[in-house]
Design brief:
alpha+beta, FAD/NAD(P)-binding domain, 8-stranded mixed sheet, 7-stranded mixed sheet, 18 helices, 21 strands, 20% strand, globular, oxidoreductase activity, Amino_oxidase
Length: 549
Amino acid sequence: MGGERVFDVVVVGGGHNGLTAASVLARRGLSVALLEASERLGGLAASYSPWPGFTAPFGAYVLGLYPKWLMREAGIEGRVRLLPKDPGMTVVLGEGRALRVYGDARRTSREFSRVSPADGEAYLRWARLWGALGVLLEEVYSHPPLSPREVVEHAYRAARTPLVGRIVEEALEAAQWMLTAPAARILGEWFESWEARAALVEDALVGEMAAPSTPGTGIVLAHHYLGVSTGRRGEWAYVKGGMGRLIHALAEAAREAGASIETGARVSEVLVENGRAVGVRTWDGRVYRARKAVLWAASIKTLPSVVELDRGLARRIGALESAGASSKIVLAAREPLKPAEEYRWLGEDLYTSSVITMPGMEYAEKAYGEAISRGVSREPWLSVNVLNRVDPGLAPEGWILASIFLQYTWRPARSWGEEDKSEVAERGLGVLESVFTLPREGVRVEVLTPRDYEGLGNPGGSIFHISMRLDQLYSSRPLPEASGYTLPGVERLYLASASSHPGGGVSGLPGWLASRRLLEDLGVEKPRRLSLEKLALKMARSAREMLGR
């Protein structure tokens, strides 16, 4: 089948970043075609039906990084309903012990005081710090990347003005070492009890092949403290109807604005004439011409196979780290998951929050080491979300549906077989039974591994496209010469996926920033500049608000 169609912009990749870009550009009056290789939009933010009547998340299961202002700009405000998690986490520590982390810092402080009065006080200072740093990160994430040193130095100079107080100075002094340090060191300096440290370390590890002692886990910790989707900093939420509802809303908004969206349209070639991207060709011979630009909203690692790049650049792209470190168990059962006797005191918190199994940072270190040596941790740590307890429509009446994120599973994505999935299920459910008594009958289990994630166009199986390591962040994401959302050697080819700054997670920001760069290059938008004084004032206000809820 052949044929040729002409648009202003062709977007390749129908994940949430591609859909965000398509909607934003179409709403600005450009004609847009979005092409998705698979038959399902959404990538790792999609929902799917593992069994008739069930709606489960393929990858992402909670929303926190997608800003409210971007929902308005992408046309999905009012189309998506969020169900906040509070407590956000219930961290089970073993032997009936647990700590809960709430959206209310003072409530979490009282919780931590149960194990250490000093840690209860420390948490108030911790919340104030992240109230300020959250604003800094939000600004960094919504602008093209600067080096971390530039950001801190410029903002620090602004903070020395009479407009702000010591709160921002303290936050910026902390940022200079915390954003690159190991999580173990950060938490060890802030909290005296092992329980408090264990309760907070999960956010530094999720999705990465990293232990608490790994340098750079501080930036992953910071990434997950951003939480801005609900309007309350640091709060995360379920999407009513499942994560796929966000994808549906984005596609709906894009189509209403005039975008053409096609699935099953695998691109075989980016067409380049006189050094400029002018369209794409699909495997079945269709040609989509782009008068103004092509936006690549798929993994950067898939580009060298469809466009001729400088040899050295192609080699460096191929060398980017993208191995998956996590798997998922989707579990359905006709009977409720009953809490083990020692955890019954937690009540509904076991069903309405993310239940993290983390009996100490040493536990995570051991799980990490086991995965390095044998591929799967004998005792992985889990994040358990009983989805239909909060959103009943996700499963038939009388059933429970749980999404169980599991880490670590460290093996080349293509080497995963069915026997490996059986081991993941055995290891994961073994840990789950330390918290819940599992039904013996009427249980359904499906396991998703990095190989399944690779099948969605993520070479290596990383849930972040490429790993969120220090050498693959900010002005080095995906590479220093490609950090401005364009590639050297090919004009008007823009990088709009999680492979670009600010990286993984369901934020829509890489797609939006690439779109902004295109609009600036077209002269439709003026370049955005950080106002450092306004930034410092926002940091101070947010720090105070974290304690004033």
